[in-house]
Design a protein that fits this description.
Largest sheet: 6 strands, mixed
Number of strands: 17
Strand content: 15-25%
Strand order of the largest sheet: 9-4-1-2-3-10
CATH class of the largest domain: Alpha Beta
Distance between the termini: 114 Å
CATH superfamily of the largest domain: LCP protein
Number of domains: 3
Number of helices: 14
CATH topology of the largest domain: Aminopeptidase
Radius of gyration: 34 Å
Length: 438
C-alpha cells in the first residue's frame, strides 16, 4: 500500500514538474515572441521613417504645399515641370442644345499664367457674305454632327491657331460644382430682370446688383442674361448684350476657379469627378492632364487674363453677324499665344514683318518656325494654316533684300521657293512652311 502511494506521489511530482516546465516554456516563448514583435515593429517604424523622410524630401524638392504633395504622389520630380509646355484648349459650353459659350483657354505651368479669349457666338464663319444664313454662325457648327471638333476647326479658321483639344461642358456641370463648393461670392454688375415669353417659358432671371452669394440656380441666370424685359442691357462701357454676357462669363468663371481651388475643396475631388463624368466631354488625354494638376491647384487667378476676339457687327444677307477684325485678331493672338516679340532683324533699321502659314501637315512646325524667326529678330504679325505643300515658299511683298530672304532659308535649313507678291497682307514677307521643313 505504501509502495503504491509512493508511486502515485512520484507521478504527481513528475506531472507537477512537467507543468512547471510547460509554463516555463510558455513564458520563454511568450518572451521570445514579444521580443520578435518589438523587433518587427522597430523595423517597420524605421522603414516608415525612411520612406516618410524620402517622401517629405521629394515634396520639398517639388515645391512643398499641396503642389509638392500631389507632384510627389503622382511620381513627378523637378524635371516634370521643365518638360511641360503651355497647354491650349477650347472650352465649349452647351445650354439648350446651343454652344453659347466658346472660350479659347491657355495655361502655362512654368510661369503660372493663363488666359481666356472669348469667341462671339454669332461669329461669321461662312464663305460668302451675300448668301449668309444662320448656319454660318459659329455657335451652329456643333449641331451639324454633334461633334465638338467642328467648333474647334471653325475657331482655328478665324484665329489662325492650331487648337487640338476641347472641353465640352453642359452648363449643368457648373451649376453642380458651384453648389458643391457652397456657392461663389460674386459682384453682379447690374440688376437683371428677364422672363422667357416663348412657348418653353423656361428661363426666368431675377438678380439684384451687388456682391452676393451665387448658388447654382443663380449662376445659370447670371451666365445666360443678355438683356432685361424692357430691352435694356449692360452699359455700353461694360459691353452690351452678347459682349456683356461674354465678359460676365469670363469674370465669373475666373471667380469659380479661384474659389474652387481652395484647399478645403480638394477633399471634394470625388464629387467633382462624378460631376465631370456626367456633364463633361473632352479629348484631352488623362496622361497629359495629370501632369498639370499639381501646378494648376497652386494657380493664382490674379495671373489669369481675359479678353475677346476683336470684332464688329455686320449685316449680311439681311442677318446680323459678328465679323472678326482680322488684323487686330492676329495681333492679339500673337501677343497671347506666341509671345508678341518685336525684335529688329540683324542689319535692318525696322523690324521685318512676317505672315507665317503652316502648310507642312505637322502642327508642331508652326511654333518651331515662329521661335526660329523671333529668335533671329523677325516680327511675326500673322499666323495661320494653309493647304499642304511640299516645298517651303517665301513671298517677298515689300522688296526686302535677297540676303534677308536667303537668311530665312538658312535659318529654316530649307531650299525655299522665292517669289514676289502684292503688298496686300500687312506683312513684308509671307512664309509658307512646307513638308521639307524638319
Amino acid at each position: 500500500m505504501n509502495e503504491h502511494k509512493a508511486k502515485r506521489m512520484k507521478n504527481n511530482d513528475n506531472t507537477q514538474n512537467q507543468k512547471q516546465k510547460n509554463n516555463q516554456n510558455k513564458k520563454t516563448r511568450k518572451k521570445s515572441n514579444h521580443k520578435t514583435l518589438k523587433r518587427v515593429f522597430l523595423v517597420i517604424t524605421i522603414i516608415f521613417i525612411i520612406l516618410f523622410g524620402v517622401f517629405t524630401y521629394r515634396v520639398y524638392e517639388n515645391g512643398w504645399g499641396l503642389q509638392g504633395f500631389l507632384s510627389t504622389l503622382l511620381g513627378q520630380n523637378e524635371q516634370t515641370l521643365a518638360d511641360l509646355d503651355r497647354i491650349d484648349f477650347l472650352l465649349i459650353g452647351e445650354s439648350g442644345n446651343m454652344t453659347d459659350t466658346i472660350i479659347i483657354c491657355s495655361y502655362n505651368p512654368k510661369d503660372q499664367t493663363a488666359s481666356m479669349l472669348s469667341v462671339p457666338r454669332d461669329t461669321f464663319i461662312g464663305d460668302s457674305e451675300s448668301s449668309a444664313s444662320t448656319s454660318d454662325k459659329i455657335n451652329c457648327v456643333y449641331n451639324i454632327k454633334k461633334d465638338p471638333m467642328n467648333t474647334v476647326k471653325a475657331v482655328n479658321k478665324v484665329t489662325g491657331l492650331n487648337l487640338k483639344y476641347y472641353v465640352f461642358v453642359d452648363t449643368k456641370a457648373l451649376i453642380e460644382v458651384i453648389d458643391a463648393i457652397g456657392g461663389v461670392e460674386y459682384d453682379v454688375p447690374i440688376d437683371m430682370n428677364y422672363d422667357d415669353t416663348s412657348k418653353q417659358n423656361t428661363l426666368h432671371i431675377h438678380l439684384k446688383k451687388g456682391l452676393q452669394k451665387i448658388d447654382g440656380n443663380k449662376a445659370e441666370q447670371l451666365l445666360r442674361f443678355r438683356h432685361n424685359n424692357d430691352g435694356s442691357s449692360y452699359p455700353k462701357e461694360y459691353g452690351d448684350n452678347d459682349l456683356g454676357r461674354m465678359r460676365t462669363q469670363r469674370e465669373f468663371i475666373k471667380e469659380v476657379v479661384k474659389q474652387t481651388l481652395k484647399a478645403n475643396n480638394i477633399l471634394k475631388l470625388t464629387e467633382f469627378i462624378e460631376i465631370a463624368n456626367k456633364y463633361v466631354d473632352t479629348n484631352l488625354p488623362l496622361d497629359l492632364v495629370k501632369n498639370y494638376i499639381p501646378y494648376a491647384v497652386s494657380f493664382n487667378t490674379d495671373n489669369l487674363t481675359s479678353d475677346m476676339l476683336p470684332n464688329e457687327s455686320k449685316k449680311m444677307n439681311e442677318l446680323w453677324f459678328v465679323k472678326i477684325i482680322e488684323s487686330d485678331t492676329q495681333k492679339l493672338i500673337n501677343d497671347k499665344f506666341y509671345g508678341g516679340k518685336k525684335e529688329v532683324a540683324e542689319g535692318e533699321e525696322n523690324p521685318i514683318t512676317v505672315q507665317l502659314l503652316n502648310g507642312s501637315g505637322n502642327s508642331n512646325n508652326l511654333e518651331k518656325v515662329l521661335k526660329l524667326l523671333e529668335d533671329n529678330g523677325f516680327d511675326v504679325v500673322k499666323v495661320g494654316n494653309t493647304t499642304k505643300q511640299k516645298t517651303t515658299s517665301i513671298i517677298n511683298r515689300t522688296k526686302q533684300s535677297d540676303s534677308t530672304v536667303s537668311k530665312i532659308s538658312n535659318i529654316m535649313n530649307v531650299k525655299s521657293k522665292k517669289t514676289t507678291g502684292k503688298d496686300n497682307v500687312d506683312a513684308d514677307l509671307t512664309i509658307t512652311i512646307g513638308s521639307d521643313f524638319k
